[in-house]
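[job 4417] fold queue: 2 targets
>>> target A
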Amino acid sequence: MLLSSIPTPIEHDWRHIENISIFESNESLLAVPNTQNLKQLPIYFDSNVKHAINICVARQSVIQKLQQAADLLPNHLGILVLDAWRSSAVQKALQEKIGDNIKTIYPHLSVDEQQQLLSDFVAPVRADFISPHLTGGSVDITLFNRETNEWLDMGAGFDEPTERSHTHFYEDQPTHPACQNRRLLYSVMNLVGFSNLPTEWWHFDYGNSLWAYYNQKSHAIYGAAHWDVISRQ
């Protein structure tokens, strides 16, 4: 597969995104399957984030497209899903967790500057806003080696709130393994219809307002979704 460079990002503005119309498709949330080249690891549950569930679930079409993307990879690689649908309670917990990380990493920034940086990595938590992960249309993923089960080098840790996490960060270092690995992940996801959040190499969307924003769609097809934790875990 010929790997194209990752384009210069367009900054996202949550104020514009929240005004996009939603024509709900009513697709179901389903568990991400574990196949040879598509697996899940619910990373927030494993790291004891408050309210996180012990399974990754997403809309039916999202899962189908994930499998299509995985099938485009070289035979020794696969896609690992770290998070997908996310409740508002988990979203709030992550805002607090990543906000604390930003305060530690960037103590020289003002409170307003820290909040602006936080908005690059975590969607707002408000009663009148549907965050991308709440729709079941967002997935946080990485690539893994099927022979060793090791994660590929992406040049920045998952949820790392630094510029290294910006998807195009390594484009000026084309020989760096992270540049090629990011290009590969970006390419297969883009080919099957996902959009990428430019500040996070791991975050991809389909069907929700963030996807509509980056694909210049007139509307989204996924609004807020709900997973019955008690009866379905």
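>>> target B
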Amino acid sequence: MPKSTNTDKSDTDKKVDDKLNTIEYTAPELKKPVIDTTKADDSKVLGNETPKPVEKPKNKIEKAVAVAEAEKAVTQAKEALTVKQQTKAKQSRESLAVVEQLVKAYNARNIEEFIRVYDEDVEFYIFPDELLFKGKEKLIARYGLMFKKLKCIHSSPIKRIVHGDIVIDHELSETCSTDEKVIDKRSELISSYQVKNGKIIRVLFFR
């Protein structure tokens, strides 16, 4: 058998160790970041924007002017609203007067006064949009016959709503067919009248 070579290997390892011991370890040099202080920071970091303060009057005069302008704006708004309300109120009074004249002529069975408050092209509807007839000629034919046939007619408002050119009547209607002193039919009706330029232009009946 060949003789062991442990002695030779030990000498080799020793030489390698001696060589490694001669190498010095040098740590890597870390470079520090260079910050340019002459350049403004333009980074867009969320939330770093500073809100601009609201500009305030610089002196008492400017403050007084600002207050006066605000009060003027409020006054103009109130005046505009008041004018609109006054116009609507006037229109409501005129519409109410026309409908009251209509009811008076209806109760008197006066066909001439009755048709006087209607426009030439008046339209009669059943809610919501069923056209019954249009024009004064058909109005005269329908109501003229009813006025002659019945012995009494009486309509009285239970409740009335007036808004500008619209008048809505919840009314009680009573009629006499044979004896003017005996009411033989009584019913409640709801009618809407639209008035323009002192004339009724549209009538809507609710069943």
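[job 4417] complete. Note on B: The longest strand covers residues 152-163.
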